């Protein structure tokens, strides 16, 4: 999986199609990502000494194939490519503009 925490992505399929957000968490073993403000589900929590119980809305994981990274230069969705820099270190680039991704 080519995504990292903090990447700005857009959802390309599903009920949240077109929504943008930052990646909060990556689940590499399951090939899923959790995106801020996308795929909100209701979770029932039991009350504890630290917090009151109730119904809480949280972001659920979505498949990594359903999101694409946003190109930092053109602000449109793009694929991720890999190349090496001067020091032979592998870096990620945006395919549309060849801009380096953080």
Quick synopsis:
By secondary structure, the chain is mainly beta.
Layout of strands and helices, then pairs:
Elements: E1 8-11, E2 20-27, E3 32-35, E4 40-45, E5 54-59, E6 62-63, E7 67-70, E8 77-78, E9 80-84, E10 90-94
Antiparallel strand pairs: 1-2, 1-7, 2-3, 3-6, 4-5, 7-8, 9-10
List keywords for this structure.
single chain; about 100 residues; mainly beta; SH3 type barrels; six-stranded antiparallel sheet; two-stranded antiparallel ribbon; elongated
Could you list the spans in which at least 5 consecutive residues all have pLDDT below 50?
A: none
Question: Could you say what the CATH topology of the domain at 8-73 is called?
Answer: SH3 type barrels
Give me the Rg, rounded.
Answer: 17 Å
CATH class of the domain at 8-73: Mainly Beta
Query: Ends: how far apart?
Result: 15 Å
Q: Roughly what percent helix?
A: under 10%
Order of the strands making up the biggest sheet: 6-3-2-1-7-8
User: What does the largest sheet look like?
Assistant: 6 strands, antiparallel
Question: How many H/I helical runs?
Answer: 0
Task: Summarize model confidence as the mean pLDDT.
Answer: 95
Order of helices and strands: EEEEEEEEEE
Question: Can you tell me about this structure?
Answer:
The protein is elongated. The chain has a domain at 8-73: Roll (SH3 type barrels). It is mainly beta and 102 residues long. Helices cover 0% and strands 45% of the residues. 15% of the residues are buried.
